[in-house]
Design brief:
Length: 194
């Protein structure tokens, strides 16, 4: 690191601002994280997909329902937590589906939330971290996920601070919900699992 800073000082005329030193340090940390990820065999250049453990996590909290129901905050939901059908139409009161349709909706939703995580996170992730993030995004939605402090911390390579953000997503409306507290604990534990 010191040699790189000295080289940058030399080519910049002898002086670097603290902001330039910090930016260089961050860049080196990202490069190092990618090198470590490569050594550990963590895929970083390809799109990640959720594992069976991640799917099990999501489905353990998203009960299968073949008739639309109000999710307790006024959002109509069907299948394994589907709120928007693959054709872009919102689920509404009175809707029903077959088991096969519910599975199809779930696969469509998984692709959407995997894409949100792949597009939002710019640092290496383990499979467990990716699975936990997809579960979170699946529950809170793509916009909330993409603009979350959790993603900001993660992209700044602060994995610990990112993990500490999971419990904050425990509200439905303005109420803390026990089910969300349990889900966030499970997601955080998976995120931190080696």
């Amino acid at each position: 690191m010191k040699a790189i800073i000295e080289y940058l000082r030399k080519i910049s005329g002898g002086k670097l601002t603290q902001k330039q030193v910090d930016a260089t340090d961050k860049l080196i940390n990202v490069a190092t994280a990618y090198d470590v990820a490569d050594m550990l065999g963590i895929a970083i250049d390809s799109e990640m997909t959720i594992s069976s453990e991640g799917i099990q996590l999501i489905t353990s909290f998203e009960d299968l329902r073949l008739k639309a129901y109000d999710d307790s905050v006024g959002v109509w939901t069907i299948g394994y937590g589907t709120t928007i059908y693959p054709n872009g139409v919102a689920v509404k009161k009175g809707d029903s589906c077959t088991l096969e349709q519910a599975k199809s909706f779930f696969q469509h939703d998984l692709r959407r939330f995997q894409t949100a995580v792949n597009d939002s996170v710019s640092v290496p992730l383990s499979q467990n971290q990716f699975d936990a993030l997809v579960s979170l995004a699946y529950n809170i939605g793509t916009n909330a996920f993409k603009t979350s402090t959790l993603v900001k911390y993660l992209n700044a390579l602060d994995y610990k601070a990112a993990a500490d953000e999971f419990p904050k997503w425990n509200r439905g409306g303005s109420k803390v919900l026990k089910g969300l507290v349990r889900r966030r604990e499970a997601e955080r534990a998976l995120f931190l699992k080696k």
